[in-house]
């Protein structure tokens, strides 16, 4: 064997060893990274949904998120998934609000969500008259920070209206409170919604909640404090008195433990034993005057959720005060009453189109004032099954017999070909619907 051949053989052997060591090191590092990731999930480490999603979505998707489109984790399930009620906790002195801790029956992990989003439930509710059970769809905000093993919703029991005992109480809320105990199961779609915390900002945050509108704010606040987010956070929370004060001890503890969290509770009708300065900070309602008197100067990012009267006065007042629309995020008691602040376009007013409801034989001129096709149908007295009114549950799906529709936002629900979701659509041309 020549010296040259011997040198070549030795060189090849050395290169092979180097390659083998490199491959082994790469595999070991990959396994270590995977183990760290899995152990972090098992330990319940927080995942920042917006940042994680922005890395995994296609390039066009971040623009949709910035514009307020619904966000669902890539790991989310399709359709409905069965959950078991692991725990129930009454959250207020009056016993009107109950939290339900939900774990997946299949034992799998849960995808993260954006704090402020909701779950859509499909419930089989017994008929009080003894008939067949009714299938109803409702949306409820998640009321805690994202966790890998459990979701939490907090639901207020809705009684009959004051002085109107002949009217029935809230069907779903009373069914959940009275019938669904620990161990019972129910079906839910993956978290979705267009009201959620904007990530990675430096602007101080103002959370404004009225009554049960506190539930998405709890999700946002718990997330911010868990992450030790350095932003200043102001929570304005309005209820009648201490009997309706949700999670009072928890909120007080967060305020004391985090110097950047400023709790501002308003009682409109305090009881004699409710202590000003201890149980609540202000008497009256959450309004613009209170915000101007309390908040420091400068730009803030507002998140607002409450009853219609509060929303109809406060949101326009913030805009009139000069707060940019991009800094106002709002929802009225969840997606079912979400009010889209969209003025009809001039083209829609100038060039109305005809919407025909074939089943009822009605034809209506669309001029953009109704807001959505669902609003238009209901305004004509045409019965339509609906749930979330936000494009998630699919309850208002309707067959299009002729024409085209346009969507205000991308639907979350899966649609059959030739169908549309009335709650988030408007007519693009003359339209005929199978209603």
Q: Which spans of ≥5 residues are poorly predicted at pLDDT below 50?
A: 23-70, 334-350
Helix and strand content put the structural class at alpha/beta
Described by the principal axes of the CA atoms, the overall outline is globular
Q: Can you summarize the main beta sheet?
A: 6 strands, antiparallel
CATH homolog superfamily of one domain? Nucleotide-binding domain of ferredoxin-NADP reductase (FNR) module
**Order of helices and strands, N to C?**
HHHEEEEEHEEHEHEEHEHEHEEHEEEEE
Radius of gyration: 26 Å
- Intertermini distance: 91 Å
Tell me the number of strands: 19
What's the arrangement of secondary structure elements?
Layout: H1 3-42, H2 49-56, H3 61-66, E1 81-90, E2 97-104, E3 118-125, E4 134-141, E5 151-156, H4 171-179, E6 185-188, E7 205-210, H5 214-226, E8 233-239, H6 248-257, E9 261-267, E10 282-283, H7 288-294, E11 301-305, H8 308-320, E12 328-331, H9 346-350, E13 353-357, E14 362-366, H10 373-379, E15 397-402, E16 405-407, E17 419-421, E18 425-427, E19 431-433
Parallel strand pairs: 7-8, 7-11, 8-9, 9-10, 11-12, 13-19
Antiparallel strand pairs: 1-2, 1-6, 2-5, 3-4, 3-6, 13-14, 15-17, 15-19, 16-18
Descriptive account of the structure:
The chain has 435 residues and is an alpha/beta fold. Among the domains are: 205-333, Rossmann fold, CATH 3.40.50; 346-433, Ubiquitin-like (UB roll). Helix content is 27%, strand content 24%. It is built from 10 helices and 19 strands. It has helices spanning 3-42, 49-56, 61-66, 171-179, 214-226, 248-257, 288-294, 308-320, 346-350, 373-379; strands at residues 81-90, 97-104, 118-125, 134-141, 151-156, 185-188, 205-210, 233-239, 261-267, 282-283, 301-305, 328-331, 353-357, 362-366, 397-402, 405-407, 419-421, 425-427, 431-433. A 6-stranded antiparallel β-sheet has the order 4-3-6-1-2-5, with helices on one face. Strands 10-9-8-7-11-12 form a 6-stranded parallel β-sheet, with helices on both faces. Strand 3 (118-125) and strand 4 (134-141) form a beta hairpin. The chain is globular, with a radius of gyration of 26 Å. Mean pLDDT is 81; it is low at 23-70 and 334-350.
């Amino acid at each position: 064997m020549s010296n040259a051949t011997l040198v070549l053989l030795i060189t090849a052997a050395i290169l092979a060893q180097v390659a083998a060591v490199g491959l082994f090191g790469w595999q070991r590092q990959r396994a270590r990274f995977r183990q760290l990731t899995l152990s972090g999930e098992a330990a319940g480490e927080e995942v920042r949904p917006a940042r994680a999603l922005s890395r995994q979505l296609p390039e066009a998707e971040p623009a949709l998120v910035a514009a307020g489109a619904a966000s669902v984790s890539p790991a989310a399930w399709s359709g409905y998934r069965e959950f078991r009620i692991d725990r129930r906790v009454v959250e207020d002195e009056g016993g009107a609000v109950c939290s339900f801790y939900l774990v997946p029956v299949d034992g799998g992990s849960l995808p993260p969500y954006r704090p402020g989003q909701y779950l859509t439930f499909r419930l089989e509710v017994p008929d009080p008259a003894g008939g067949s059970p009714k299938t109803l769809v409702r949306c409820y905000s998640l009321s805690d920070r994202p966790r890998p093993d459990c979701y939490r919703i907090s639901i207020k029991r809705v009684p009959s209206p004051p002085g109107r005992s002949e009217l029935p109480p809230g069907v779903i809320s009373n069914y959940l409170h009275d019938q669904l105990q620990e161990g019972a199961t129910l079906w839910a779609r993956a978290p979705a919604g267009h009201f959620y915390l904007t990530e990675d900002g430096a602007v101080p945050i103002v959370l404004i909640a009225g009554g049960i509108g506190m539930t998405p704010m709890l999700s946002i606040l718990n997330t911010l404090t868990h992450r030790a987010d350095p932003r200043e956070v102001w929570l304005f929370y309005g209820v009648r008195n201490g009997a309706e004060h949700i999670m009072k001890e928890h909120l007080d503890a967060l305020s004391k433990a985090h110097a950047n969290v400023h709790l501002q509770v308003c009682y409109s009708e305090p009881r004699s034993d409710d202590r000003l300065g201890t149980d609540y900070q202000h008497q009256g309602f959450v309004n613009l005057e209170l915000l101007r008197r309390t908040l420091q100067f400068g730009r803030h990012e507002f998140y607002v959720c409450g009853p219609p009267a509060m929303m109809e006065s406060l949101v326009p007042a913030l805009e009139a005060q000069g707060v940019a629309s991009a800094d106002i995020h709002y929802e009225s008691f969840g997606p079912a009453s979400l009010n889209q602040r969209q003025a009809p376009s001039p083209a829609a007013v100038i060039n109305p189109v005809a919407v025909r409801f074939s089943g009822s034989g009605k034809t209506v001129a669309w001029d953009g004032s109704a807001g959505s096709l669902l609003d238009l149908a209901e305004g004509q007295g045409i019965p339509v099954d609906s749930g979330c009114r936000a494009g998630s549950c699919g309850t208002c799906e309707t067959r299009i017999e002729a024409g085209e529709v346009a969507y205000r936002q991308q639907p979350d629900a899966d649609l059959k070909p030739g169908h549309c979701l009335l709650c988030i659509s408007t007519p693009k041309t003359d339209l005929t619907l199978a209603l």
